[in-house]
Amino acid sequence: MVTQSCIRLLYTCRHVFHIRQVHANVLINGTFNDLIVANKLLYFYVQHKAINDAHHLFDEMTTRDPTTWSVMVGGFAKLGDYSNCYATFREILRSGVTPDNYSLPFVIRTCRDRKDFQMGQMIHDVVLKHGLQLDHFVCATLVDMYAKCTAIEDARKLFDVMLSKDLVTWTVMIGAYADCDAYESLVLFDRMREEGFVPDKIAMVTVVNACAKLGAMHRARFVNEYICRNGLSLDVILGTAMIDMYAKCGCLESAREVFDRMREKNVISWSAMIAAYGYHGKGKEALDLFHMMLSCGILPNRITFVSLLYACSHAGLTEEGIRFFDSMWGDYAVRPDVKHYTCLVDLLGRAGRLDEAVKLIEKMAVEKDERLWSALLGACRIHGNMELAEKAANSLLELQPQNPGHYVLLSNIYAKAGKFEKVAEFRDMMTQKKLKKVPGWTWIEVDNKTYQFSVGDRSHPQSNEIYRTLMSVIKKLEIAGYVPDTEFVLQDVEEEVKKEMLYTHSEKLAIAFGLIAIRKGDPIRISKNLRVCGDCHTFCKMVSDIMRRSIIVRDANRFHHFNEGTCSCGDYW
Predict the structure, then answer these.
(1) Which are the contacts of 497, defined by CB distance < 8 A and separation ≥ 6?
(2) Residue 401, CB half-sphere, CA atoms under 13 Å: how many?
(3) Rounded to an integer, what distance in angstroms lies between the CA atom of residue 246 and that of residue 251?
(4) Does the pLDDT of residue 6 top 50, yes or no?
């Protein structure tokens, strides 16, 4: 009876002070040695985040069971005290207590939160040793841990052998692929529904993000219909994700429709719509929306200013961008961080004001990162400033010596300047470090199916027809004045070879296929994982004019809308 009375008292506690009173009574009436009571005290201390009290109690306990250990591991994990979480778990193993499906998920989540892949593998070995690999909760947590540590293959192996999967596990796996393989993410979504699972709002946000990554318009429309059909409310989280999805699928109008339909909008929703205008080159619309946001009484935050500065940078609104940056702290108490400085360096660099960009970098008080130097290096590439490019590249290589993109970008600058001996030097460095250039890919949607092309690709079943169409189009463009810009072939080969290499760029092949397979009047939408080259940009402009076709290109930087021989970026990308 005393035990039950103590436990009932604990459930009435609203403050740590009250738990301490019960604790004192327990010591007085002699029920402290009752393990059930001691464990409950420990649990309530942890629930009230009184980890020091919990730890003191834990140390005083002469008897402990798996629940005792699990409560302490969970307490440290919840408070983000990762070192003590690990240390307590090691004590479990040393004491001979078998870890259970309560303590293991906590320590696995700690590995996830720290992205500690090696420790995660060690915990996985513990799971196997104690025969818990078939436990649903443990296995699901391991899948989540591997996914967050970007060990997608390990996550998938576990996922595939799970005897039972719940909606959370499906969502975790779909979300993991959304970050690295959006197409497979959507395949899993279809499988999940086929197996009878009805996705909730969290799952749909994950799927929406996958559609945004892939830029798959037919999937975006399907997802929108599914959300409407199943009566899922367009709250701030789901609505904001859908704004981003439609924007990244190249349909600003649909993004704005979702934005206008949302009953509740927060600063993130407004910032997402401003960002959408930004990477579609609609700088003026982004600025107008910002002023509308202010008139609605919503103050900007860091994300808003990143979106605004990006919009100004990609629309050539240099002076406006500088004014926004200057107003951040003085008018809105938003302290600029490295992302804002990066946007401003990009803004100044694109405008050719490299000296100002360098001065800004030299005087900035925040820590410089690789994105900042990448922005400066990109500006050097545009304006051919070799000396400054080398300075930026050296800083990049110090920060990320294993990133192949930095070596490629600098070697491209050398190639553009005709310094092929330097190009060879950097390629040798990449070979020695076993680094490989990221291959360029272009995707196109036709009849609800996504096709992928690489440079010189002949894997498509209609490859012969695609190449015939492409050569026919190029002849028409040449009659109209198109001259292949071989400056964008960064190899020391003959001029004719350079032309042939340009002709088979992945985006040209995708557009040729689009001309065959997509009916006239419908836009040709393509997505590219790298920045579109200058020659392909010119090609798209001329195709939109000569062939009277609207072309929408999403590259690594932004969207380009080609119509009647012009691009929405105003050749400022």
Answers:
(1) none
(2) 4
(3) 5
(4) yes
- With 0-12 / 13-18 / 19 or more C-beta atoms within 10 angstroms meaning exposed / middle / buried, residue 225 is exposed
The number of residues making up the chain comes to 573
Structural domains of the chain, ranges and CATH numbers in brackets: 1-63 (no CATH), 267-336 (no CATH), 361-438 (1.25.40.10), 441-567 (no CATH)
The greatest distance separating any two alpha carbons of the chain, rounded to the nearest whole angstrom, comes to 100
pLDDT tens digit string along 107-152? 899 999 888 999 999 989 988 988 888 788 888 889 989 988 888 8
- Which helix (DSSP H) or strand (DSSP E) does residue 375 occupy? helix 370-383
Q: CB under 8 Å, gap of 24 or more: what pairs does 443-449 form?
A: 443/214, 443/215, 443/510, 443/526, 443/527, 443/528, 444/510, 444/511, 444/513, 444/514, 444/524, 444/525, 444/526, 444/527, 445/216, 445/217, 445/218, 445/525, 446/513, 446/514, 446/517, 446/518, 447/517, 448/218
Return d(Cα 116, Cα 119) in angstroms, integer: 6
Question: pLDDT for 152-187, tens place per residue?
Answer: 899 999 999 888 888 888 998 998 888 778 888 888
- Label residue 233 exposed, middle or buried (CB < 10 Å: 0-12, 13-18, 19+): exposed
DSSP 8-state code for residue 529:
S
Instruction: State the Cα–Cα distance between residues 44 and 57, nearest whole angstrom.
Output: 11
Residues 6+ apart with CB under 8 A from 123: 104, 107, 108, 111, 142
DSSP string, 233-296: ---HHHHHHHHHHHHHTT-HHHHHHHHHH-S---HHHHHHHHHHHHHTT-HHHHHHHHHHHHHT
- B/e letters for 352-374, b = 16+ CB within 10 Å, e = fewer, are ebbebbbebbeebeeebbbbbbb
Task: Give the DSSP letter string of 86-112.
Answer: HHHHHHHHHHTPPP-TTHHHHHHHHHH
Do 72 and 106 meet the contact criterion of CB atoms below 8 Å apart? no
- SS (HEC) of 49-76: CCHHHHHHHHHHCCCCCHHHHHHHHHHH
Residue 33: C-alpha distances to residues 38, 61, 66, 358 (Å): 7, 8, 16, 68
- What pairs with residue 454 in β-bridges? 441
pLDDT over 50 at 205, yes or no: yes
110 neighbors 125 (Cβ within 8 angstroms): no
* Entry pTM: 0.77
Across all residues in the chain, what is the average pLDDT?
Answer: 87
Strand 524-528 and strand 551-554: the pairing is: parallel
| Residue pointed to by tokens 């809308």 | 561
